[in-house]
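User: Hello, can you help with two protein structures?

Assistant: Certainly.
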Amino acid sequence: KGTIVVSGAVPTGFDREPHFYKKELTIKMSCSYGPGRYDPSYEEKGLDYPYAYVRWTEKRNMKAFQDLIAAKKIDITYLTTHTYKLQDVPAAYDMIMEKTEPFIGILVQYDTDKIADLSKRKVVIDRVKKKQENAGVCIGFIGAGSYAQSYLLPNMPKSSEVVLKGIMTSSSTGSRSVADRFGFEFCTGNVDEILKDPEINTVFIASRHDSHGRYVIETLKAGKNVFVEKPLCLTLDELQIIRELCVQPNSPLLMVGFNRRYAPLTEVIRDRIKTGTMSMLYRVNAGSIPSDSWIQDSEVGGGRILGEVCHFVDYLTWVNGSRPISVHAVSMKEPENLDDTLSISLKYKNGSIGSILYFANGSKSFGKEYLEIYCHGTTCMMKDFRELEIYGFGKPYKKKLLNQDKGQKNEVLLFIKAVREGAASLIFVEDFLNSTEVTFRVIESLRTGNVIHL
């Protein structure tokens, strides 16, 4: 008998005979540098495993190795064959590529006094740019992930009245890259550089979900207009603070990224089906997301209800023109308790009813979003914000877009217009606040099994 430990990504073409079966050999896979690797709860939240569960975790392995070095039982000095200052690194690469000397480990020396506060630095981008003295909208960005770079920044109007002033990301190198690409005047790793800049009057927040509420509150308190990607926040306490800030006299503008209400086909629906008593069905074939994804983490991503279902709660409110007065939700139980396959029933103040079917157990090759509306002898059907059919006005109305349009561009342009004109009436902030509260009540209904009255 024996144990074979496979360390690293190596071929494992084991044959059952003659040794593995007859000798009852045990095969173990080593997870790089120890148990805990790839586990967000361990690596990001610092939740260690009990000794009885696993003795040698990633951290304990490292600590034991450090203890051996401290006790001089392991000598690693011979591993370092060369040391270069940062400015001399090109010479190190030349030596490696040309193999002019034998080498094992190469150290790079940094001037730590200069870079100790790097995350708080403000880097002004040196570019030839005409100063825009009368810019009505001076923008700062907090966070710039793939969504912001794909849908928010490219849709910024190219106007002398709009200036991209500063951008902050958790990675200083990342903020510099985005700043160069989109033409920001400075980049930083310190959010205070955005919030305290006297020229910036408008802030876009596109960071991870768990930071949205905090940044919205700080930005509103700083007297700056806010556009925040959904969700608005992850706790009811944050929502209450935001609501109180928004009702103050002359409060800054607040817009939440519920972009679907600004889609071209949504405008057609609202124009042809006037607000009134409606029966609405919104089906979402969301597809599965692994349980260890940050989106599914209730503390970081908020889960898929707060993270995405909020879109559809807001959409039915917008199309219907009335706010929910009750909500009831049920989910399909599964081992990981993700609550991402669920049915939501909404009742509205004007008598309308709505159902949201959000399913994570379907095929991603099938269409994602499907809407049906029934109202006063009229029927509407929309598929994936590309196809729209309306029946009940004589000849059926049919429209098909070449490309899907979920309203991201219209959303950004409307917000910029509202800021430029000081037109709070263009932004229905109460809708955003109420849609967010209803989404929290969906979770409450799932937890209690009750109909929640609003």
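That covers the first. Now for the second protein you mentioned:
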Amino acid sequence: MLHEVSEIITHEWQRPSLDIMKGFSGAATGHIADAFDGYAALNFKLKAIIPEQANFLGIALTCQTGPADNLALLHALTHAQPWDILVVDTQGYTNCAVAGDLVLGMAKNSGVKGFVTDGCVRDIAGIRKLNMPVWAMGVTPNSPHRRGPGHVGGPVTLLGSTIRSGDILLADEDGVVVIPANRASKILKKVHEIAQAEQIVEAKVHAGMTRPEFLQQR
């Protein structure tokens, strides 16, 4: 493993109000996707590494690493705060892990609520004990370098979706959705309206409804 260090660039960002973020507690990813006209989720290829530990809610703390490298992730740990979700852009590199249970354990000790990467992780037995949701492309025992370059706090792209530090992320068994920080208040109101409307339809389905109301009127 190489340790020759290159520069890691750190960008400035703002975290949203915790009250706004916590307003999404209990929301379904499907309702959030509906609030964005059907599209808010990260690519379906990202999977919860421990399926029964899929759910999280928090604030994105982004970093981008070089292929087969995790120096930027280690720098991101120095900025981690409670309620953060570490989002690691490996530029799609999956031939080695970007993190294992020890790095993820350090993140959890800082109050981090989850981890998302377009790369791989390792040490599944240890990750399971952490009880911290980890979403990734897969698992491999191969280890990364620590040489950079990379950046912390800037926009990243995971499988076609752009995420910025300060965005709100929510995950459940269906996937991970992204709520841009500058739209969070409006989306939160819309999500509540969608949930209420769905409760009405759900009650009708349980009562025996056989087709959508707009078809019943024909």
